[in-house]
Design a protein that fits this description.
Number of helices: 16
Distance between the termini: 18 Å
Largest sheet: 6 strands, parallel
CATH architecture of the largest domain: 3-Layer(aba) Sandwich
Number of strands: 22
Radius of gyration: 23 Å
Shape: globular
CATH topology of the largest domain: Rossmann fold
CATH class of the largest domain: Alpha Beta
């Protein structure tokens, strides 16, 4: 598949890196130095120029592209680029936007702006935050097969009941599969004798009920209750959408916004949210408002530095769980290393969502884990698939790669895979796979 990407920022680079080994990728970038750097890093064709220009797009042979992805940091540039691409050919066009207004226009008439799909970074990030809030102790959560299967990643913290146990001892759930363990930079494909240690990150796949029960089971005493009291620092678009989505779940969050005019507008738009006009970095104010008693604090301000400050203050006050929005990908590890429970990067969330479309007709869904060390794929098995008729044990023997079949759905029912489970045509399987082996695995579907 030929893919043309406009923009070599963090989002465009991430998408290009994910696709370059599988597809013919071209990146159009206005910054000559960045374009040259990316060409050698990924061994792809890069073109220096304005991505909205017809002449530049013609140089990139957009007329022959199967997919066109506009993912610069400027909404209008991305939308105009998609419109230009549609005048040259008929690629599947994807536009990244931050403004929800553009998404609403596109929702009213799909194809508006010349975009076949519009990805709103702020809304995606808010949805990610709300999913994580809904599963206490999780640091990542993705839904597969229409929500029938959940994949969650948990950090095994000090005091967790499963710390020091083997996988066999920790797995007490009928519809759950231990898919992988991350310890530092190492990926472990576990068996029953693998020991789970403090500091590990465990990836499990299974029914929503089993995943939720596992999350409660591994949590230290008193940390797995439902998050009823949520405080959001920052009335940004991400903060606003997070509060709105929580309201839709009958929650009554509190939101802190320093700007008086913005706070007034938020109070009018969010009837079930208590909006407080104040500086969220004021420790005395946070103490007066009993923020320390909240279940979750979300730092969603405009700068990473202020989010870091708010997150650290919340931790010092004793907030059980702190989630921070981190705009700079390089800062994510820093936030996590100083004890922030969950750091969510909007660019990573956006890149992952866009990358899903490159797996059309192969993988129906995709999640990327731990800086692209592993992927979770949702695969539909057709009658001619090499996997059909094989047991899970036989599949492990035939394929020389690191992967785990985490769940199988058959005719709308969930099947927990075991060694003697035989795969059939029509099955949907959710597979945890080391990224370097993903392409080879999909080739036998």
């Amino acid at each position: 598949m030929r893919v043309v990407i406009i923009g070599a920022g963090e989002v465009g680079t991430s998408i290009a890196a994910n696709l370059s080994g599988k597809h013919d990728v071209v990146v159009i970038e206005a910054d000559e130095r960045r374009a040259e750097q990316l060409k050698y890093e990924l061994d792809i064709l890069t073109i220096v120029g304005d991505g909205t220009s017809m002449e530049t797009q013609e140089a990139g042979d957009v007329a022959k592209a199967d997919m066109f992805i506009a993912c610069t940091d400027d909404d209008r540039t991305n939308l105009v680029a998609c419109g230009t691409a549609k005048t040259l050919g008929d690629p599947f066009t994807i536009a990244r936007v931050k403004s929800i207004e553009y998404l609403r226009t596109w929702d009213r008439k799909h194809g508006a702006f010349g975009a076949d799909h519009v990805v709103c970074s702020d809304l995606l990030t808010a949805e990610n935050i709300v999913r994580v809030i809904g599963l206490p102790t999780a640091i990542d959560l993705d839904l597969f097969v229409g929500g029938l299967v959940h994949m969650a990643e948990f950090e095994i913290v000090e005091g967790s009941p499963v710390a020091g146990q083997t996988v066999a001892e920790a797995d007490r759930f009928d519809s759950l599969t231990f898919a992988g363990l991350f310890c530092g930079d190492d990926l472990v494909i576990p068996d029953g004798e693998t020991r789970i240690e403090t500091g590990y990150r465990a990836v499990v796949i299974g029914s929503p009920e089993s995943v939720r029960a596992f999350g409660s089971d591994i949590a230290p005493d008193g940390t797995a209750e439902r998050a009823d009291d949520v405080v959001i620092a920052g009335g940004t678009e991400i903060g606003y959408h997070t509060a709105r989505l929580l309201e839709e779940q009958s929650a009554k969050p509190r939101l802190i916004e320093a700007n008086e005019e913005r706070a007034r507008a938020l109070a009018e738009d969010l009837p079930d949210t208590v909006v407080m006009q104040h500086d969220a970095t004021d420790t005395d104010f946070l103490a007066r408002e009993h923020v320390d008693e909240s279940d979750v604090m979300i730092a969603a301000m405009k700068s990473d530095e202020r989010n870091l400050l708010v997150a650290v203050l919340a931790k010092r006050l004793g907030v059980d769980r702190v989630i921070a929005v981190v705009d700079n990908t390089e800062y994510v590890t820093l936030f996590e290393e100083i004890g922030i429970d969950v750091a969510i990067n909007p660019r990573d969330v956006t890149a992952e969502d866009i990358t899903r479309f490159s797996f059309e007709n192969v993988a129906e869904n995709l999640a990327v884990l731990e800086n692209d060390q592993a992927e979770v794929l949702e695969l539909q098995l057709e009658a001619d698939s090499e996997m059909v008729g094989k047991t899970i044990r036989g599949l492990d023997a035939d394929l020389d790669g690191r992967f785990v079949v985490g769940a199988i759905t058959r005719e709308g029912s969930l099947i927990t895979p075991r060694g003697d489970t035989e795969l059939r045509a029509g099955d949907k399987i959710v597979v945890f796979v080391e990224t370097s082996f993903a392409e080879e695995l999909m080739a036998v579907v």
